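TASK: fixed-backbone design
INPUT:
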């Protein structure tokens, strides 16, 4: 079974905070003020997708992994 896991391309992230504010159970800032995923199962996939859709630089993506 495939699981969708969100990840942030930190080379593209501008640290705007939209994802952190929208889905705080999944995203946080790292030491460089770039977004990172700290709990991919912290909130429903619909909420994560909303953060992806709101990201101004589209740096959040889904990765398929074996569950």
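OUTPUT:
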């Amino acid at each position: 079974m495939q699981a969708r896991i969100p990840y942030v391309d930190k080379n593209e992230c501008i640290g705007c905070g939209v994802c952190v504010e929208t889905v705080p159970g999944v995203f946080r800032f790292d030491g460089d003020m770039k977004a990172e995923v700290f709990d991919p199962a912290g909130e429903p996939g619909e909420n994560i997708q909303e953060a992806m859709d709101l990201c101004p630089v589209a740096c959040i993506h889904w990765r398929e992994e074996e569950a």
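COMMENT: The mean pLDDT is 95.
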